[in-house]
């Protein structure tokens, strides 16, 4: 009788386990997506365009601290996520931008020229 009771408990636990795992992963996904927009705004950095290289799809930016990448202020070359971004800026422009590490490369994923 005790074996049957233990088997019933084990069956109930195993039957609900996939649903509880799904609910937990769904809750985590919702939490991360709701924080995604605030994370993107936290990742915005200030800089000045030094060079635009449309052929190489790269941009050189003198920037302040990149908090999301734990990087101090410096001048560096970035890849761009979308080459069309390079048409929006020119050397000397002050910009707000987001840089991320994508596929091992520091990449500008968003950029806005300041007025």
TrEMBL record:
Q: Which organism is it from?
A: Noviherbaspirillum album
Q: Give the UniProt keywords, A-Z.
A: Signal
Q: Does the keyword Signal apply?
A: yes
Its lineage opens with: Bacteria, Pseudomonadati, Pseudomonadota, Betaproteobacteria, Burkholderiales
Q: Which Gene3D superfamilies match?
A: Copper binding periplasmic protein CusF
Keyword check for Zinc: no
Looking up InterPro entries in the UniProt record yields: CusF_Ec, CusF_sf
Q: Where is the signal peptide?
A: 1-23
Q: What is this protein called?
A: Copper-binding protein
């Amino acid at each position: 009788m005790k074996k049957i009771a233990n088997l019933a408990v084990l069956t109930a636990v195993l039957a609900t386990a996939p649903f509880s795992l799904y609910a937990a992963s769904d809750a985590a996904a919702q939490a991360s997506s709701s924080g995604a927009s605030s994370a993107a705004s936290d990742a915005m950095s200030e800089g000045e365009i030094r060079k635009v290289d449309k052929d190489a799809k790269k941009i050189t930016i003198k920037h302040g601290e990149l908090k999301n990448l734990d990087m101090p202020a410096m001048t560096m070359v970035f890849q761009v996520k979308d080459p069309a971004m390079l048409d929006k800026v020119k050397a000397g422009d002050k910009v707000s931008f987001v840089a991320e590490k994508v596929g091992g490369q520091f990449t500008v994923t968003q950029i806005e020229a300041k007025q």
